[in-house]
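Aim 2 progress update. The chain analyzed this quarter is reproduced below.
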Amino acid sequence: MATHTTRMLILGSGPAGLSAAIYGARAGMNPIVVQGIQPGGQLTTTTDVENYPGFAEVIQGPWLMEQMQAQAEHVGTRMMWDTIVGVDLSRRPFRLTGDGGDVYEGEVLVIATGAQAKWLGLDSEEAMKGKGVSACATCDGFFYRGKKVAVIGGGNTAVEEALYLTNHSPDVTLIHRRDSLRAERILQERLFAHPGITVLWNKEVRGFIDGGGTAGLVALDLEDTLTGEHSRLATDGGFVAIGHHPATELFRGHLKLDADHYIDVEPGTARTSVPGVFACGDVTDKVYRQAITAAGTGCMAALDAERFLATAEFEELRKAAE
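Predicted structure tokens:
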């Protein structure tokens, strides 16, 4: 067991955490990044990335994260392979404990633990991820231009995803296991008014059908929740839109969270309810959830942290001189 100390401690190694590390390292804060259970974040499970600025050709998600990590290390970031199981935010330096007993102390803490999409939990769903099954229409809808797609869910996320997909697909089906939606009324009105969207009520997805070879997804196996009858819906893309889980379990009782358990930050900043603790990326964002927005808020967190430390150090010098 060892204790690792730094001016800037970063938890999470996706686009937000690594962007914070790059800016923090260049500001001389010698950041430590504790990578967590999914080093590189959600992009490591993404294949084609077509919308990250700066790349004319399609790039691979894992490659992009490798490049971000290499850049962060090049400017002075230390990467630690560990999973945090305990936190103490009651005083500075903040203290985090890894599952092997190592302790990490930081004068400031940047939380970039991200969020995970909720899935249906089907074996066929897992097998078809990236082969026609996705949890992000904004990320992957472009690949289904002119094709038939289906969205699974009944809340705001599902309705927004269905409406967004009409920019690419002339045939969008929303599948919901009940006979009414949970989405806001204004979103429902837009959905029902759109000629390119069909709603299937009282249907539950029981399987994603693989066409074999390079065909990918070709249909969904549906079960009627009232009669139990099975049917098939031909489709080229299936978008699971049943919500996200922000990775905030560690911080419940330590930081202010919103009603959906995302970390609450002061609008326009990365500042949390604890001075010196900052949050960025999908752990604070239930709206955009893009790699580029996560990276942007990572930059914000580093700049906010740098200013916080500069102010704190000035105050300490001033008090010492009195």
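The chain has seven helices and 19 strands. Residues 52 and 278 are 24 Å apart (CA to CA). These observations will guide the mutagenesis experiments scheduled for the next reporting period.
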